[in-house]
Structure formats: structure tokens, C-alpha cells
Amino acid sequence: MKLRAPHYCSAQFVTRSISKLNIAGVVIALLGTILWGTSASGEDAGGQALSPQRIQSITSAIDSEAIIANAKVTKDWLSYGLDYYETRYSKLSQINTESVKNLGLKWTYNLESLRGVEATPLIVDGIMYVSASWSVVHAIDVRTGKRIWTYDPEVPRTGGYKGCCDVVNRGVALYKGKVFVGSYDGRLVAIDAATGKKVWEKDTIIDHSHSYTVTGAPRVVKGKVLIGNGGAEFGVRGYITAYDAETGEQAWRWFVVPGDPSKPYEDESMAAAAKTWDPAGKYWVNGGGGTPWDTMAYDPDLNLVYIGTGNGAPWTRNLRSPAGGDNLYLASIVALNPDTGKYVWHYQETPGDNWDYTSTQQIILADIMLNGQERKVILHAPKNGFFFVIDRTNGKFISAKNYVDVNWATGYDASGRPIEVPEARSDKSFDSIPGPFGAHNWHPMSFNPQTGLVYIPAQNVPMNLTAQKNWTHNASVPGNPMSGLGWNLGYDVNLTPPKSQPFGRLIAWDPVKQEQVWKQDYASPWNGGTLATAGNLVFQGTADGRFVAYNAKTGEKLWDSPTGTGVVAGPATYLVDGTQYVSVAVGWGGVYGEMQRATDKEGPGTVFTFAIGGKAPLPEFAKYPIGDLLEGVKYDVANVGPGTQLYVSHCGFCHGTPGVDKGGNIKNLGYSDSATIANLKDIVFKGPFMSLGMPDFTGRLSDDDVVKIQAFIQGTADAIRSKK
Questions:
Q1: Phi, psi values for residue 576, rounded to 5°
Q2: Given 299, 356, 544, 718, which residue is catalytic?
Q3: For residue 443, which of 24, 80, 103, 77 has the smallest C-alpha distance?
Q4: Do the Cβ atoms of 398 and 389 come closer than 8 Å?
Q5: Contact 646, 701 (CB under 8 A)
Q6: pTM metric for this prediction
Q7: How far, in Å, CA of 606 to CA of 153, rounded?
Q8: Which of 11, 194, 251, 367 is the most exposed place for a label (fewest CB within 10 A)?
Q9: Tens digit of pLDDT for each residue in 97-147?
Q10: For the CA atoms of the chain, what is the radius of gyration?
């Protein structure tokens, strides 16, 4: 497989003002070239050769019963969240608070990717399956760190801009000899686990005129592969689909929000939901949103699948549903029958979502003691900043408490509804806390039943929202964030500079007392997922390029190792030939990682694998080349203002505010060479980067528009230079 260059557009929501030029830019950046890369390397730990026949024998035994049985011992890591309860709690204790000081690197494996890596590896009997950016899947021999096979679904790079949040993939599913991956462009692919050959694929997208994507990991329940989708910012209608694992035939589909009321509703749940939407907003034209793009959990005893649903489309409720309403089933936890897809119950965490407060963050199922009684509950920390405890048998609200500072609500009443602050829904600019990046995003949390604590990757990314009064579906309007590429937010972003402060934090949360027990503060938001173990440890990768182990009870840092670039994915631990390993897939990216960075290093996506006594050398990390601030491109000052608006609506959410930030995995244009910006027309119109993911702006921008954008880029760089 060739080492691929990055794609050049796809991201999400941060704009900033440069007061001197009144520039509303958007902070997200792109890494132009990559300098660091290593071959797969490792130490042979013995064991039988992993022939295709042996792999087939091992993986064919993995089914729902095997996943349930493994949860009792956690020798392997067979599902995205380890078990169907999604606890990410391993019962292995060879690596513990005493031995962790001797943890060392066993091997690294080059994923050959230059964008975000968000996948948690699956491991069975020393065979690892992990995905990288662009939905490429790798099979690795854990005993040696060597490649077994790779599978590339060949996602068209020209469609990279169709997603809001990087060309990522959070992982695969394993079931009866097949590996399942959802491709970025919306296909579900079944791969032979032994050979890496495609067995079948299905197009999961109902309407290719809209920008649907798939970035989440599938789950397999009772022979059915479940997959959701993303794209609410682009005006889609969310749904989850189940496919037969053997044949790929569709078993059922459940829509999250109602469709066109002039047509029959798909089921009773959609008819009920329609009563909570105002048809005057013609919500079905813009899809409504609700995309279930990440979390799922399953209770075999109750025979219920739980999904978390996404935000509204557009974000502001006043536009999609002018008379108000809860807008079911946005920002909700929904229970479905896995055999039929039939709706069973829901609990809506953010009624009438107005702030991109998705509930797609990881759902954990647990049995905990509340008021002297054991309760079957859901533990959830969605974007909106409140930690929820919900009865998973019936969806009834038990409690909610904010785990970070919030300003949109003061709490939840006894019925489980938020007590909102009126200013949060006004037409005036609102400094949303937490912002749309969420107090907790997709980065998985974990639950340790020994300590009784949940370990949450918490954060704040400041953002100010101003509702638009004259928004039109799919209209490309200069100044409307990314509207030139199909975004439909209904908000202007950071017209008023936000006042809240950014932070990244690991929080150990007691779900019974609903209080923080300990915390660790980080250098930046956007830190990786967590792993809890019976060795009284919590593992987490950080934005500033470390993999860290903490005492699960006290929060004391016990060990860390450099990873070069920032870590966003969740780690996994497992046992092979009597040795406990810990692996984490490293690759800086995701929506925040496209725009920002907390390290001065760069490298390709890499799997780091550790064990007690490991002595493999760390890879060499290249220094991230920022370059000099752009200068020398001639421009007319009168074009800076119009260029600002065009940049925000076409370029900003991919390339960021020129010169303001260092850039993440997308290069900031303020540090481009002058020849690149002077010849911008040759790049944006059928340019050389189309094969890398940059859209062709032919028909979207004119030659005169490009001249104005050039003025904005160079003018902003000049303004920054004069300030310095």
C-alpha cells in the first residue's frame, strides 16, 4: 500500500475574529506533507504461525455468545467497547499499580495514514484488526507486530469534504470469520478475516444527493450488523440499519426523525415524533438531522439495543421548527428491539436541541446500587455537560448532574427535563458553554465496577453562536460557515469572540453520588479515550503526545510514554500467550485535530503496543514544519472584507484562520509559500489536490472570488505580522 498524502478539506465549526480586519475565520488546518514513517517491526514472541486456515478457525468462533463469554474474563477485545455493555473495563491485572513502572514498548506498526486515527483495535488470540483514516483496515500479528493483510475500500478522495469532522473511522466489528467496516462514503463492507478479501458490501445511504458519511464502528448483535451515519450539518435524515451478517441483506431500518408529513410515516414512533415538530419549518426538506453516528450498546438479558442520536439540522431550532417543540428523537437515547428494529422507549437528554448537543457519545450499561437497591442503568456523559443515570429497563430518568461548567441550563427537574436559561435560546449572540465540540465528544469513557467510577475525557472549546434570521436550506451565502460546500448551521460562529476558556481534562466521576472524585488537567482539549483495568489503572492518550497510566482510585500518574503526535483513540488491553498487552492507535485528527495541535511533532498513524519488559525503541518523530508567515502576495485592501466572507463559506473550516494557529493535520494557509497563494486559481479549479480530497470549486467560485480570497489570506497574515 502506498503512503497517502492528506485530503484537503473537511472539518467543523470554530471561527475567530481578528479585530483589525473584522475577520470571522474558522480555525482548522491541514498538514501538507508527512516526513515520518516506519515499517512494521516487532519481537517474535513465539506461538503458532497465523496461517489463513488458523485465522479462519479462530475468528469463525466469534459470535454473540463468544462476546458475552469473553466479558467474564476479557482475555480478548472482541467488540468496540470490549463488551456489549461498552464498559471498556478489563479484568486483566498482570499490568497493575506495582508492575506498570516496568511497562515498555513491544512494537509499533505504521498505519500509513496522515489523517485522524480514532479506532479502538479488536484482538482475538493474537490477531489484531484496526482501521485508519479513509476506512482502511489492517490485520496485524500481535506476536510480531507484522502485517497480515490490509483492505482499502477505496473511498473516493474527492468526497472527503462531505464529512464535518475528518476522514476518520472508529473501528471494525468481528463476527463468524468476517470483519465489518463502515466506509466513509457510506458502504458497509464484510471482509474475510483470514485473507482480507471482500465478501460482500452494501450501500447504506438512502439519498446520495445529500452528504451522508459513515465513521462509526459497526456492532454485531444476534447475527445482525448495525450501522448508523453522520451528516446532520449537511441536511440529512438520520437512521440506523441492520444487515444480515452472513448475506448482507437488510433486516430492518429505524429512522431517528420523521419524514415528509404528506407521506405515510414508517411506523408509530415516527407518527409520535411528528407531533413534536412544527411543519411550518419544513424540517423534512433539511432532513431534520438526528444522525446516530457513533454509540451503540446491547443488553442480552433485556434484548434491547441502545443508540445515541445526533443534533438537529439546522442547529438552531427556531429555523427548523419555528413554533418550538422537543423535536423527537434528536439528542436522545433510544431503545430498539434488535430482532425487528421496533422502537421500545426513549429518553431525550436535550429537548429541542439548539446547540449541536448530540447524544452520540458512548453509552455504558452498568448494574449499580442506588438507595440500597441494585438498578440496571445507563451511564452517559453527552456533549451538553450533564452526566445522566437512566433506568435501562424503561428509559426513566434517575439523575443528572453537570460534570463541567455549563451555562445553558441550571440543572434537571424531577421529571428529567432541563431547567433552561432563557438567554440560551435568544436571537442574541450566546457564548455556549460547553460549545458544540461538547463537554465530552466521541472519545470513549470507561467504567470500573471496583472503584465505581467512570473515567471521562472532558473538555471545553470556546464558541459563540449567533442565530441567522434569513437562513435558506442549501444556500451558498458568503459568510455562512461552509455553506459553499453544503453546510446548513443556521448560525454565525464567533461574530462575538467567546469568553470561556479552553481546557482538556480527565475526570473520575462517581455516578451514584453524582460528583467528581479526582481530575487531571491537560495542555489542550481533545484527549483520547480511556481504558480501566482490574490492575487499578486508567490508561489514556493525550493531545500533547503521551500515553499515560493513572491510579484508578486516586488519579496519581504512575507511568507514561511519548507517542510523538497527539492521541485521540481509545486503547485496548488483552492477553496473548500469557502476556498482557496494551495497544493504542495514534494519529492526530478529528474535527479539533484538523485545526489545532499540542505537539511540535508529526507522523503517520501508528499502533503502539506495550507489555511488561518491552524494550523496543521509540520511532523517530519529525518536527512539524510551520514555516514562515506568508508575505509578498499582492492584493487590493478593498478585497479583504469580501474575501473574508468567501473564505468562511468555502475554505475556513478546512484551512483555518491564516496565520492565527499552528495547524493540526491540515496546513494553515497563513504559512503557505507565496507561490501557492499567488497561483490559487490553479489549485481551487480542477487543481492538483483533487485526488487528495480537495473539492473542485469550479462553478462554486469565480476567478474574481479567488482574487478576493487571496486578499483575505495575505491581508490577515499582514495584520498578524504588524501586531507582532
A1: -135, 120
A2: 356
A3: 80
A4: yes
A5: yes
A6: 0.92
A7: 20
A8: 367
A9: 999 999 999 999 999 999 999 999 999 999 999 999 999 999 999 999 999
A10: 24
